[in-house]
Design a protein that fits this description.
By secondary structure, this protein is an alpha+beta fold. It contains 9 helices and 7 strands; from the N terminus they run H-H-H-H-H-E-H-E-E-H-E-E-H-H-E-E. Strand 6 (340-346) and strand 7 (352-359) form a beta hairpin. It is elongated, with a radius of gyration of 37 Å. Residues 11-133 form the Archaeal histidine kinase 4TM domain.
């Protein structure tokens, strides 16, 4: 039910009360009731109708939810019935006999005033609840903006740290190579030159990793970039095929459903997680992916064997303080955090296991 429909009901009801009060005044009471009583009756009964018309006019400019519109009508009906019952019960206590004209007057006044009180309460309740929701949304938006500011600050820190540090190391290595060439003598052995080249290559890869995934650290898209994913195992298989890994990846089959909520970047995120695990896995190792339902969620476990998580990475897990696996885990966690939870399960017996908890789609 729309708010304009509720407004129409109240306006029609108010106009009906005003019309009935005028007709009742002109036809039935003008020659039988004292003037003061006639005027009072007209003002009270007609005034309630005018009040309902005004409430309906005010509602015509508002837009409430259907449930709140129904509550306004419920309040209106409750007010009319409650006040009518009060008059019906109280009138015999103060007056032994009630004429038809008096009874009609009681019904008219009680329904009119009760409807006005109920409609007013319902309208103010709807407006108060709507404003409270607007205030809550504004606070939520403010908190979201603060989170985005923190994300941008974090992004700036990561970029400045890795890019500046990598550029400094690259420049130092280039200076060493250039010095060897300019001196025209082989002062350094082949291993030293190879180390400089490997250092440059390593730092370039670090910058490439940050540049490739840095867009996922920017402002979040809220729920716009999150959608249901039915075949999660197929998504993981595609992610493993799109990235070059030195270890094997196996994805256990899983029966159909339930659908889970995931971001548009899920394949890239899983691929980045697989790369991080592959970097801590020995050359003959493998990564096993298993899915299971648990407490209304779909849990995906990524187990690398044999593998060892570096102590400095484990000590600062999901923090941008180390390169290689630490940086990739940080980038993966920051992106996955928009729609799921990434956590470390275990690092025992030369096994490293991470789990991603996906939320099922609400029915």
């Amino acid at each position: 039910m729309q708010t304009r429909q509720v407004a129409t009901v109240l306006v029609v009801g108010g106009a009906g009360l005003v019309s009935f009060a005028v007709v009742h005044f002109l036809i039935h009471e003008i020659n039988t009731v004292p003037t003061a009583h006639i005027v009072t009756n007209l003002v009270v009964a007609g005034g309630a109708g005018v009040g309902l018309v005004y409430v309906g006019y005010w509602l015509s400019e508002q837009s409430f939810s259907p449930s709140r519109n129904r509550r306004i009508l419920a309040w209106t009906a409750l007010g009319a019935v409650s006040l009518l019952m009060v008059f019906v019960v109280a009138q015999p206590l103060v007056q032994d006999a009630v004429t038809f004209e008096e009874f009609l007057h009681i019904v008219q006044v009680s329904i009119g005033m009760g409807s006005l009180f109920g409609a007013t309460i319902g309208a103010f309740e709807a407006r108060a609840l709507t404003r409270a929701e607007e205030a809550t949304r504004a606070e939520s938006r403010l908190a979201s903006m603060e989170d985005e500011r923190d994300r941008w600050n974090e992004l700036t820190t990561v970029l400045r740290h890795y890019v500046n540090n990598s550029v400094t190391v690259i420049n130092f290595a280039l200076d060493e190579l250039q010095r060897s060439v300019n001196e025209g003598a082989v002062r350094r052995d082949a291993d030293g030159v190879r180390d400089d080249i490997d250092t440059i290559e390593d730092r370039v890869k670090t910058i490439e990793t940050v540049a490739e995934h840095v867009d996922q650290l920017g402002p979040a898209n809220g729920t716009a970039g999150i959608s249901p994913v039915a075949d999660l195992c197929a998504v993981i298989e595609r992610a493993s095929q799109t990235t070059a890994l030195d270890v094997g990846v196996s994805v256990a089959t899983f029966e159909e459903g339930p659908d889970v909520l995931a971001g548009d970047s899920i394949e890239k995120d899983v691929a980045l997680l697989l790369e991080a695990l592959a970097s801590v896995t020995e050359g003959d190792g493998r990564i096993d992916c298993e899915c299971e339902r648990k407490n209304g969620h779909l849990v995906v476990r990524f187990t690398a064997t044999p593998a060892t998580l570096p102590p400095d990475v484990e000590a600062a897990l999901f923090e941008p303080v180390t390169r290689h696996s630490g940086l990739k885990l940080y980038l993966a966690e920051r992106s996955i955090d928009a729609y799921a939870d990434l956590r470390l399960v275990s690092t025992d017996d030369r096994t490293v296991t991470f789990a991603v908890d996906f939320e099922s789609v609400p029915e």
